[in-house]
Specification:
The chain has two domains: 5-205, no CATH class; 229-281, no CATH class. Helix 9 (244-257) crosses helix 10. The chain is an alpha+beta fold. It has ten helices and eight strands.
């Protein structure tokens, strides 16, 4: 791969804080513009890219909204999509759609669940559809000595849990821009990372938030299937026992204020007991679909 990511670090290090801030401002401005157009179209069932309803398909004008399968999109049409749109484009659109239905927890991109040999491995859920992106290090390098000797990724699509597009159906080439973004993210991850914007964030971003901020800004979910986090709170009051009545009062205050039990317990029991809360992803987030890699001779 021709990209020398070290030179980008040198360029970055020579930039002033003002220049960096301006670049970030322009990027954020463009993202906000795109996100606004997307959301306005989505609410009306219209694709912001082609300005046509999600239920329409034009074979001479491939569009990302085909992947929502509201139209008569077939597997054989998929190459038309990836010939026109990069991995970054496809992934962003799918993630944006998923977050309109359920914020963050429809996207399982947890690093802890990604095998070390993978460059990309995550699953996105939207309504009755699951999409999975998968790329091993061998895929990213290209399979030397084969006809697939170019950087590529694999894609799976399930509708109501049934096969629609399988991982081994296509070897989807990365664009030069995709390669630049991914390679720089891998080699210069301390200052550069691929970002799908605020409306494209997944569970990895969710669990990366400071614990105090999570406790402060989350509200209990009435439906566990729509929850983002699972809280497990332990109270150690061995030196100053807490009555069951006070625990009940904490529960009632949490319900009344719409705050978590963990936050109210911390506020009320400071100095009297140790309150430890473990925050983990909700059980209802989608599992990352696994792909079996075939050894090549």
């Amino acid at each position: 791969m021709p990209h020398d990511t070290e030179k980008y670090r040198k360029i970055f290090e020579k930039m002033s804080p003002t220049e960096i801030a301006e670049i970030n401002r322009l990027n954020n401005e463009e993202h906000q513009k795109q996100a606004k157009a997307f959301k306005e179209g989505y609410q009306k069932g219209i694709c912001y890219l082609c300005n046509k309803p999600f239920k329409t398909i034009s074979s001479d004008n491939p569009c990302l909204h085909w992947l929502l399968r509201q139209c008569k999109f077939k597997k054989k049409d998929f190459p038309k999509i990836y010939a026109k749109y990069s991995y970054g484009n496809i992934a962003a659109f799918i993630r944006w759609c998923a977050n309109q239905e359920r914020l963050l927890s429809n996207i399982n991109d947890l690093k802890d669940e990604k095998p070390d040999r993978k460059v990309i491995s995550y699953t996105v859920k939207w309504k009755n559809i699951d999409w999975t992106f998968d790329c091993s290090k061998n895929d990213f390098e290209g399979h030397l000595g084969t006809t697939i000797n170019y950087p590529h990724y694999h894609f799976q699509m399930r509708i109501d849990g049934k096969q629609f597009i399988n991982f081994n159906d296509f070897h989807i080439p990365f664009t030069d821009h995709d390669i630049f973004i991914l390679k720089t993210s891998i080699e210069q991850g301390d200052w550069f990372k691929q970002d799908f914007g605020a409306i494209g964030s997944g569970m990895q971003d969710a669990v990366s938030i400071d614990l105090d901020d999570i406790l402060e800004h989350t509200t209990p979910s009435k439906d566990e299937d729509n929850a983002t986090y699972h809280f497990s709170t332990m109270i150690d009051a061995r030196d100053n026992p807490i009555s069951g009545e006070e625990i009940y009062e904490i529960q009632m205050e949490a319900q009344r204020t719409g705050k978590s039990f963990a936050l109210i317990a911390q506020q009320r029991l400071t100095g009297r007991a140790q309150v430890q809360t473990i925050v983990s992803p909700a059980d209802s987030i989608p599992d990352i679909a696994s792909r079996t890699e075939h050894k090549r001779r």
